[in-house]
Amino acid sequence: MRLVSFTDQSGQASYGTVEGSEVLDAGSVLRSRWPDLRAVVAAGAVAELAGLGPRRPLADVRLLPPIPEPGKILCIGLNYLSHIAETGRERPSHPSIFTRYPASLVGHGTPLVRPKASQAFDYEGELAVIIGKGGRHIPAAEAFDHVLGYTCVNEGSIRDFQIHTPQFWPGKSFEASGAIGPWIVTADAIDDITRAELTTRVDGAVVQRAWLDDLAIGIPEMIAYISTVITLSPGDVIATGTPGGVGKFRKPQLYLVPGMQVEVEITGIGTLKNGVVDE
């Protein structure tokens, strides 16, 4: 299934599934029980969305981040071998983890905002893992049992703020600087996520391309490590890192400016598209 959160033309927030070019508005039927998709996931009730709800054209709704207000957005830095190589760093033995907050991410089709405080606005195409079943001390061998599905992320980075101190949270947390979506593809619809290919385009030109098996630390190991530290909960988001080709390390550098269009495509999942505007 493809799971979405959206607002309709009246501004009413809802959720449901996507079939072809249509949205099935399951939230209009289930909202009194589960107010949003995060609550559906927490209840273990995703299967109830299949085929449920009135249909409307996908073009008539505004897509939101698939999980509204996730409890945790955990991001992994320096996790593709190609990106590690372009930065001149060594391969990590443990995941480099930082957090983002919901206000820093918009949905598919909503513009990314270049902040007035900086012009060093970079793109980072990524795969995100959505937790379906929570847990603590999850063994790597059981990690995929806890995955609801996958989506695309543009983990926009404000590079000068990122290097102000060794703690680079500021450069990763500007409001509306990143995007997630367009939907969650449930794990049962993907045979092997490591065989998928990630491609990022800026104004139609390919700037990043990598197979997901280029990860230095794999998805099971990420989940095992994170859950050693903190309990993972249904709806939590893990952004798994970006491959080589980011704007900072290109020659000449390529930073996002208003009017550009950025696409993050992952085979088997879809394409996340966002324009760029100034704050």
UniProtKB/TrEMBL annotation:
Domain Fumarylacetoacetase-like C-terminal: 72-277
rRNA-binding listed as a keyword: no
InterPro entries in UniProt: FAH, Fumarylacetoacetase-like_C, Fumarylacetoacetase_C_sf, Rv2993c-like_N
Entry's Gene Ontology BP terms: carboxylic acid metabolic process
GO molecular function: isomerase activity; metal ion binding
One Pfam family hit: Rv2993c-like_N
Signal sequence segment: none
Rv2993c-like N-terminal domain residues: 1-66
Keywords: Metal-binding
Annotated family: Belongs to the FAH family.
Name this polypeptide is given: DUF2437 domain-containing protein
Source species of the chain: Paenirhodobacter hankyongi
